[in-house]
Every structure is written in structure tokens, then in C-alpha cells.
Design brief:
Number of helices: 12
CATH topology of one domain: D-Amino Acid Oxidase, Chain A, domain 2
CATH superfamily of one domain: D-Amino Acid Oxidase, subunit A, domain 2
Structural class: alpha+beta
CATH class of one domain: Alpha Beta
Largest sheet: 8 strands, mixed
Shape: globular
Distance between the termini: 52 Å
Number of strands: 22
Radius of gyration: 22 Å
Amino acid sequence: MFEFAVIGAGVVGGMVARELTKYTSSVCILEKGSDVALGATRANSAIVHAGYDAAVGSLKARMNVRGSKMMAGVCRDLGVKYKNNGSLVVGFNDEDEQTLISLCERGKINGVDGVRVIYRDEILALEPNIGDEVTVALHAPTGAIVCPYELCMASVGNAMDNGATLRTSFEVKKIEKAEDGYKLSSDDDFILAKWVINCAGVYSDEVSAMAGDASFTVRPRRGEYMLLDREVGDHISHTVFRCPSKMGKGVLVTPTVDGNLLVGPTAEDIDDKEDTKTTAEGLAKVRAFASAQVARIDFSKVITSFTGLRATGSTGDFIINMPRPHFLNVAGIESPGLSSAPAIAEYVLSLLFDAGYEAEARADFNGTRRPMHFFSSLSVEEKNALIKERPEYAHVICRCETITEGEILDAIRTNPRPTDVDGIKRRTRASMGRCQGGFCTPYIIDLLAQEMGVDYTAVTKFGGNSYINFGKTK
């Protein structure tokens, strides 16, 4: 029997599991997908929000501001890229100005440092490519950007490095009370755990209902994005939002930590919790709104588009509670969930201790990890020294992103271990560049097959039946 079962291997589940491994307890992470970071964590805006938007006194506000202040240190420890680029919420008229003034006051009450309202001349000094009709903006200098799936993989991996167990392709179908805890069953397997922590994203309401609590629902909110080539990644330096509405913070334009330009998302409430298709209408909306906020975006440089789903809870706030003994919900974690994740993990531990959890802090906990892709950032001397020690670092597999065979092999051998091509992509950025895997994919498949001891044709793109090769042609 495990002390803890964490359901869901997204960034919140990963952070919670990592926090648990700081203590002398056994932890099992259960994930219905074939890899970690496959839900809301895989496709979102990658923003560390400052904390001005959430209602005063709400869990969202408290967790956002605390998480934002923690994020730089967490990313440093886990080897994850983080950039404090600041954010601008732009307005176009007198009504927007009043909204931004109210947001500024809310931000100050929430504890956001340095937030203030500025006007066009100062906006242009910060962002020369701001939209032609923008007149006013809320400037939040503590806003930042990260890579969400990289943060998730690093937190899950760090938990595993400290003793946690990860069970992928384990979809919880039934939760039963057992002696001293719970029995969690999939179609063909089960585990026992004394405590259950529900971090199941858009499925968290269904998981909670299995444990006897149907007090809330979670609906997916679909958001479509466009990603532009690094060639235009420096078009702006801040994250540029527009005034928020009841559907969220709206379309944004932002640089990414890897040098691209990201625009999106739309906001559409849907019922299908697996519907991640992109649409012509949605992408046209992204383009139109983004062009009003930031002028002269070169949309001919779009290299890919994608859709993410946000877990929108029925209560209007994060749902973090204990409706049953030893069963804790961490549900409805929509934006600013990524920003809040470190603080949510900290808060969960405090609730567990309040509920009677007892454990000693581990003296041997190691909270640090090496970055998952790093070769291109080394000096020439450092690269040559590494190549001398490990010749596979001399072989560049992905030319667009300068990812080497050594980095791919390290990714395959590092927790949590990937088993498909998209898993390598998320860990190393191989195939994320301009050609989107057109040249490097065959080499990645070959390395995966060799390392896993399987046939070349057995390697998939994203698990399941997503086979890429069916046999030799010559």
C-alpha cells in the first residue's frame, strides 16, 4: 500500500507529488495517458501571471501571487527555463481605462508588486510594435514566462528521482473504500493508498464523484493557438493581453522562453473533454484579435497551430478541499493554474498536516535537476569538452533546434522516460523547429527503438495506435 496516490500527471499533480517526496512517504502518480503533461499542461499560454486578475480573497488570488513569487526559484532548482519579461494588459478606450484602473487596484490589494497604469507614450517606449489603437495599459513587471510541459516533466521526474512511482496508461475507473485507505482500480489493475489526491484536470469532477462527492462540475474550455518561427520571436518582449472578460484574459501575444512568438487562445466552452481540434474560424479570430493588440505580426511565419483545454470549474474558483476523509480534491485548476502550481502544492501539504498526516522531513531529498536540453547554450570550449567525453554530443539530430543525439539519449534514460516521438519532442525540442520534424523524425525513431529494445515499426508518435512505420519499402 502506498501512503499517497496522486491522480493526474499534469503540472499540478507533478508539483504535489514532488512536495510529498520531501517527506518519508511512498507516493504513486497515476496517469491515464501514455506520458506526463498530456492534458491542460501540454497546451497553454505558458504565462506566470502576476496576480492582478483574480478576485480579492479567492484561492486563485492567493495561490497566484504566492506561486508567482516561488516560480523563479522552482525553475532554477528543476533546470527549467524561466524569464521575467513582464506583462501589459492593453486597452483601447475610456471604458477599458476604467477596467484597467480597477484591475490595478485589485492587484495591489492581492499583493502584486509594481503594478501600475501607463499610457501610449510609455507603452511605445516598452513595446514599439504595440497596436495602433492602443491608448492605455496595465503594466505588471512581475509577469513571466516558462515552458509548462517542461516544468511538469521536471517536477514529476524529480519526484521519481526521490522515490515516487509513476504509473502511466492507468485510468482510474473506480474508487472504493478499503481498510486504512482506498482501492483505485483501472480496467485491469489496482493500487491501494492511504490518501488520494485528485489532480485529474478536466476529469477531476468525475474522479471526485467516484469517491462520493458530486458537489461540483468541470467543463473544458477550448483555446486555439498559433506558434510563429523564432525569426519573429523578438517582435515584442512583454506578454501583451487585452482587457479580460468573463471568458478569461482573452487572446495574448507573447514571446516564449525558447524564442518563438505565441498568439492565442480563443475561449469556447465545450462538452467533449478530448476535443483538441483546431478550426479555421478559431485561428482567424486569434489572428484578428492579436493584430489589434500588436501591430505588424508576420503571420506568414506560423509554423504550427494547436488547441488546449482548460479545466473550468463550476464554482468560479479553484476547488481544493477534503470532502471525504483522506481524499483531497485539487480541481477546477484553470488559469492561473500554471502560475499557482508551486503554491498549490505547498497549500495541499498544509491541508494534509491539518487533517492528521504525520511524517518526518527527509534529510536526503534532492530537489535539483539538470536542464533537459542545454547543449546549444554551452560555450565552444564546453561543447568540445563534452564531446570529448561523450562523442554522441557531436551528432546533431535536429538541426532547427540544434538538438544532439546525446541529449535525446539522455532524455530516454531520464525520469519520466519517454516511449514515443512526441515524448522526445516535449523533453528536448527535437522536431519543434521550422521543419516540424521533417528531417529528424526517422533518427529519433531509430534511437527510441534501440534504447527500448523494440522493432523500428513498434515506435509510435504519441502512444496507442499512432504507428509511423509499417514496414520496409526497400
